[in-house]
Write a structure and sequence with these properties.
This protein is about 40% helix and about 10% strand. It is of the alpha/beta class and about 425 residues long. It has one domain (about 10-355): Aldolase class I (TIM Barrel), CATH 3.20.20.70. Strands 3-12-11-10-9-8-5-4 form an 8-stranded parallel sheet. A two-stranded antiparallel ribbon has the order 1-2. It has a two-stranded parallel sheet with strand order 6-7. α1 packs across α13 (about 360-380). The chain is globular and about 50 Å long. Bound molecules: flavin mononucleotide.
């Protein structure tokens, strides 16, 4: 029976010394050419200091310079400075480091790209404060280029000494858009039934495998559900878990939701585990614990990481003991206390986090940005500031994205066009 301090060896051979991992959180700390910076190095050194050698997963690195999730994501295309990325790897010291790779699809804000792309244009723009433009449908050759981009990015990460990559297929970004019948209305091999809708994800996983060695860890972050009518369901997700097992992935992280239905932050009614047999602790926290149990039956030999709302040591221990979970993912708690992992391993009971929700849909931006600002503080060599006002953080986000996103459009287009 696994406890928090039990080691775990992934199928790739990567050894995790204990069961707590830092979940991916976007850093938005790259330079104007979307290259890694000393701020990334300070940040990962800080997280490694409190991780007791545990797994760190980076925020999403982009595979296509034209479409970013944040204006200052690292872009892992042919222009990436691998020497600088290696410095980030080295800063993480004895922690295994996995880079998350993603493409935002229609969830690219309008400052970064006025016309985002999507599997099909039918679902229209992401409805959120007018921040997103109306997408156009990707052509087959564009999809193939994106899939190849996952391979290129993975190779760069391997060259930089990373232990693996995680393909981001959750939270409503491009590969999750392909999985969702609400967004993906294609009738070619990239759409249709769940197998067709999973093609972009499975091909991306294969591209990563083909570009790296068998000891390089390949993980996937998958939604339990989109939490929207007509979207990607738990039944779909269970089948996709089966397909990922067939592909031989080394770790599956479970999350849920999209920008329009932000279950990942617990912002959907009735989310917490309704299954009383899962015990009192997980009943109150761990948003996707009931799906983890379903996924377990499909993912016999593949370790499962569960992320979302997990806060107390008691819940973590119970998820590992009989919840079918192998790794506990922590996001926001580590943005506010980078030493929390070491504390939990030493017996700290953990605690609820304050909520920073603003009224209306701006609340999502407010909460996420509050944590992103804490991450930026650590990148600058400071400690998190729990007293920061969420309105200040939200305003900083919109202002910063507008200036940097619009300012970077031409610069990024020039690099893409360079032979
Ligand atoms: C500031 C911030 C940035 C995030 N960026 C990413 C990301 O780049 N990739 C990703 O998969 N999830 C991202 N997430 C979601 C987290 O990985 C996690 O799924 C979510 O915060 C729920 O876990 P928690 O309750 O432990 O915070 C982000 C969360 C926050 C707060």
């Amino acid at each position: 029976m696994a406890d928090l301090d039990s080691p775990l060896t992934l199928p790739s051979g990567l050894v995790l010394p204990h069961r707590i991992a830092k979940a991916p959180m976007t850093e938005n700390l790259a330079d104007a050419d979307n290259q890694p910076t000393p701020a990334h190095e300070r940040l990962y050194a800080r997280w490694a200091r409190g991780a007791a050698g545990g797994l760190l997963i980076t925020g999403n690195l982009m595979v296509d310079r034209r479409y970013l999730e944040r204006s200052r994501n690292i872009v892992a295309d042919r222009h990436l400075d691998v020497v600088r990325l290696r410095r980030v790897r080295d800063a993480a010291a004895d922690s295994p480091l996995i880079a998350q790779l993603g493409h935002p699809g229609r969830q690219t804000n309008r400052f970064v790209a006025r016309r985002p792309v999507a599997p099909s244009a039918d679902a229209g723009a992401v409805r959120m404060m007018g921040l997103f433009g109306r997408p156009r449908t990707l052509s087959v050759s564009e999809i193939e280029a994106i899939v190849a981009g996952f391979g290129t990015a993975a190779r760069h990460c391997a060259d930089a000494g990373f232990d693996g990559v995680q393909v981001h297929a959750a939270h409503g970004y491009l590969l999750a858009q392909f999985l969702s019948p609400h967004v993906n209305r294609r009738t070619d091999r990239w759409g249709g039934d769940v197998r067709g809708r999973a093609t972009a994800l499975l091909d991306s996983v294969r591209a990563v495998r083909a570009a790296t060695s068998s000891s390089f860890t390949v993980a996937v972050k998958l939604n339990a559900s989109d939490f929207r009518h007509g979207g990607f369901t738990e039944d779909d997700a269970e089948q996709v878990v089966g397909m990922l097992v067939e592909e031989g992935v080394d770790l599956i992280e479970i999350s849920g939701g999209t920008y329009e239905s932000p279950a990942l932050f617990g912002e959907v009614d009735g989310l917490t585990d309704a299954d009383p047999s899962s015990g009192p602790a997980t009943h109150k926290e761990a948003y996707f614990a009931s799906f983890a149990r379903r996924a377990r039956t499909r993912a016999a030999g593949v370790p499962l990481m569960l992320t979302g709302g997990i806060r107390t040591r008691e819940a973590m221990v119970s998820l590992l003991a009989d919840g079918g979970v192998d790794v506990i993912g922590l996001g926001r708690p580590l943005a506010i206390d980078p030493d929390l992992t070491a504390k939990l391993l030493a017996g700290d009971p953990g605690r609820e986090l304050p909520r920073y929700t603003l009224p209306t849909v701006a609340g999502l931006a407010g909460e996420s940005e509050w944590y992103e600002t804490q991450i930026a503080r650590m990148g600058a060599g400071a400690e998190p500031d729990p007293g920061l006002h969420p309105v200040v953080a939200a305003a900083r986000f919109v202002g910063g994205e507008a200036v940097r996103g619009l300012g970077g459009q031409r610069r990024r287009a020039r690099l893409v066009a360079r032979p």
